[in-house]
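Slide 14.
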Amino acid sequence: MVFSLCNEIKLRRPEIDDYEIIETIYFGGGTPSILSVPALKFIIDTIYENYLVSDKVEITIEANPDDLIEDYIKLLATTQVNRLSIGVQSFFDEDLKLMNRAHDAKEARNCLAMVSQYFDNISIDLIYGIPGMSSERWQENLKIALDLGVPHISSYALTVEPNTALSSFIEKGIISPVEDELAKQHFDILVETMEHAGFEYYEFSNFGKPGYFSKNNTAYWQGKYYLGIGPSAHSYNGKERSWNINNNSKYIKALEEDKLPREIEKLTTTDKYNEYVMTGLRTIWGVSLQKIEKSFGLTYKEYLLKQAQKYLDEHLLFLDGDVLTVTKKGKFLSDGIASDLFLLNLG
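Slide 15: predicted structure.
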């Protein structure tokens, strides 16, 4: 698989202009930490050999606490990897058992204490809205993370995927269903706690101390282009969206024949407008009316302002000069607000 990944990296070089600089490399989509450090380094070296990489590049690897033994971290610290994203989810065993996580609370704490000796730029994931989680326990989760000195937190409301143990427990009445009101309470606590601790709320699910915003997340939410390498990986170049097949053996076979195993969707002007509105409203940078008019036309700008008016009146949106942003009151509703600003009937 590693050789297939590297071959795709080489084959897709023509998609990047010679002057374009790679600013972020992200190993995600599962548990990339199962890769040996030499294999990881081989992939990174292949990127450096084929692309122009910034001397301030952010290279992130996702991992779970139970994957990160000290010997692995020591070796990882000798590579170009300079950021870790760790799927902690909770610092309480009852939450972790409910979510069927492999690690326990003690492992999560010990992992963060250990990795902080080798890495400064660390992000963790935390889940809120878990059935049975009190507001006090959610506050304690955040306090533990802050006490451990984590400079970046990504936090998401619990979603129940079909055909999982969690969905089965809910259907059988073993545990309570996920409640929107509970998630909203936890969300409000999250925002207040993180802002009080000096974190900047730069995107709906992301909080970072100054200097610790995720370059990968920021690039995505600002609509920058990206290449996705590997089975099921998605890519975006401003005009098209593409995705690789999700079958490992077919992916490997295609790359052995120097073929790119992917499908491509050409984006219409309306697709691009809708995506910009969706991503822009989730961030502190908002949606620029000037950019709307320049990129999509006056019709789109007028439509946006018309649709936004009721949310402006309700103080859920705020127009600061040229930029439309979601107010603190409207943050939890930002995805719903964005969908109401979408345009469906233009090309």
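Speaker note: The radius of gyration is 21 Å.
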